[in-house]
Design goal:
The protein has 498 residues and is of the alpha/beta class. 33% of the residues lie in helices and 18% in strands. It has an eight-stranded parallel beta barrel with strand order 4-5-13-14-15-16-17-18, surrounded by seven helices. A four-stranded mixed sheet has the order 6-12-11-10. Strand 2 and strand 3 form a beta hairpin. The longest helix is centred in the C-terminal third of the chain and has 19 residues. The C terminus is likely disordered. The protein binds ribavirin monophosphate. Ribavirin monophosphate binds next to strand 18.
Length: 498
């Protein structure tokens, strides 16, 4: 007989509801903060926070550079998928980090360079404005696409065509974007070089970036004002992949595995802890407290929870292994709380797989998760890398699991995996741009937290009251006994914006 046989059923997120508590003046939706810890670094004690508790899944159909940029602007982060070549993944991370988030570390040109060289650099980088600096890094001017004609001036020196330093407005040692904004608004220029007191160039601030920044107050950036980027790694080629991702600027890594409670993952985390002690790493996936303890012992700074609950996942059906996400979270969160009491160190927990709607997110958070990872939710967006398909007049996007035949093609060629599949390939209804969908989902979460009287996620952990619901009460909570103009969709009746 098996070592343990539990006859208590494993629970899904959908089986819980939150009980309303008093909404105070401090917990109205406008005052609810969704700031959440994503991952800590055990060696340094530094925690990487998101401004919303949401990450996109490390999947080919979900998290490329466009998703990384769009989601970081909204306050979350994409886990850039690792089922691609090291060079392609590192380039995706570098693209997210290059995206301008206020202060920009610019590519510079020398005053002695020719206009031909500037035009070539412009073509290669896509940038049209270059600060001109001397050998000591002192700002001597700016040359932009408006200052030269590539044919007519190609042999001329930059110094002959640039706008010299004396005619430029500069900010001296400005570190606050609003100060830079004030100078840009008062001046006539579209770009403001920031220099130190000696005149050495530090960064550039573009007017159009500031406008974009103002539109995205929740965006998450590093201390150099570059968007945050996170990347998945596997337990096979990490010794080559990690250095390339670090070089590209990855702020955090996540070990991508459907079963993280393994010697392979322990070995990978040990290597990371020895080589990159200050790099925060999310371990996973596990569904038990024992799995949590194992990953944390090996240096994981957050633990991702879920097995077999993803929308495209058939692990439970194929292998018989897995657990309802709610039960898995409860077990892992209890282990996390024991670890906190024992060591004083808080390890964030990430809920992953089957988190589909705003209500799923808030219930996962109330059960003790700090953030959620979503695949299907983000696959529907314009920014996901998957192709659009029109079926019966409806625009859909392809969505496939990392364990599906389509994704395994890549892995099998490299690691010899692929005897059987653990995921399927399907379609999801196209939803448009992330920026047109996510705010509505976040508004629902804020409203739900307000109903629970919780202005922060820490308070939600502490004060939320959850109740298990019966199948009949779930039915009662849905639309019933009325005819609807459209009663069913491929979303199982869900409305699009969720
Ligand atoms: P969902 O958000 O429910 O679409 O689930 C996404 C999650 O499903 C991923 O973050 C991952 O944990 C899991 N996944 C990805 N591929 C597969 C598979 O092929 N079985 N499962």
């Amino acid at each position: 007989m098996a070592r343990t046989i539990s006859q208590t059923p494993s629970r899904a997120l959908a089986e819980f509801r939150l009980l309303p508590r008093l909404t105070t003046a401090e917990s109205v939706p406008a005052k609810v903060s969704l700031r959440a810890p994503l991952v800590t670094c055990p060696a340094t004690g530094v925690t990487l926070h998101l401004n919303i508790p949401v990450a996109s899944a490390a999947m080919q159909a979900v998290s490329g550079p466009q998703m990384g940029i769009a989601l970081a602007k909204q306050g979350g982060v994409a886990l850039v998928f690792c089922s691609q070549t090291i060079a392609a993944q590192a380039e995706s991370v570098a693209r997210i980090k290059r995206h301008k988030a206020g202060f920009v570390e610019p590519r510079t040109v020398s005053p002695e360079a020719t206009i031909r060289e500037v035009a070539e650099l412009s073509r290669a980088t896509g940038f049209s404005i270059f600060p001109v600096v001397d050998a000591a890094g002192m700002l001597v001017g700016i040359v932009s696409r408006k200052d030269y004609d590539p044919g007519r001036h190609e042999g001329r020196k930059v110094t002959e065509r640039m706008i010299p330093r004396a005619r430029l407005e500069v900010g001296v040692e400005i570190t606050d974007l609003s100060d830079a904004n004030a100078l840009l608004l008062d001046g006539h220029h579209s770009v403001l070089p920031i220099v130190d007191r000696q005149g050495k160039l530090l960064s550039l601030v573009f007017k159009k970036d500031l406008e974009e920044y103002a539109e995205n107050p929740l965006q998450v950036a590093d201390d150099r004002k570059r968007l945050i980027a996170a990347a998945a790694i596997n337990t096979h080629d990490f010794e080559e992949r990690v250095p390339a991702l670090v070089e590209a600027g990855a702020d955090a890594l996540a070990v991508d595995s459907s079963d993280g409670y393994s010697f392979y993952q322990g070995r990978t985390l040990d290597w990371l802890r020895a080589r990159y002690p200050s790099l925060p790493v999310v371990g996973g996936n596990v569904v038990t407290g024992a799995g949590f303890d194992f990953l944390v012992e090996h240096g994981a700074g957050a633990v991702k929870v879920g097995m077999g609950s993803g929308t495209i996942c058939i692990t439970q059906e194929q292998k018989g292994t897995g657990r309802g996400l709610a039960t898995a979270l409860l077990d892992v969160v209890a282990a996390r709380d024991r670890h906190l009491a024992r060591t004083g160190r808080y390890i964030p927990v990430v809920a992953d797989g089957g988190v589909v709607t705003a209500k799923d997110i808030v219930i996962a958070l109330a059960l003790g998760a700090d953030t959620v990872v979503m695949g299907r939710y983000f696959a529907r967006m314009e920014e996901s890398p998957s192709e659009k398909v029109v079926v019966n007049g409806r625009v859909m996007k392809a969505y496939w699991g990392e364990g599906s035949a389509r994704a395994r093609e890549w892995k099998t060629a490299r690691y010899g995996q692929g005897v059987f599949v653990e995921g399927v390939e399907g379609l999801v209804e196209y939803a448009g741009k992330l920026a047109d969908n996510l705010p509505e989902t976040l508004a629902m979460i804020r409203s739900s937290m307000a109903s629970c009287g919780c202005a922060t996620l820490a308070l939600l952990h502490q004060d939320a009251e959850l109740e298990l619901v019966s199948a009949l009460s779930i039915r009662e909570g849905q639309v019933h006994d009325v005819y609807l103009p459209r009663t069913a969709s491929d979303d199982g009746g869900r409305s699009w914006g969720e």
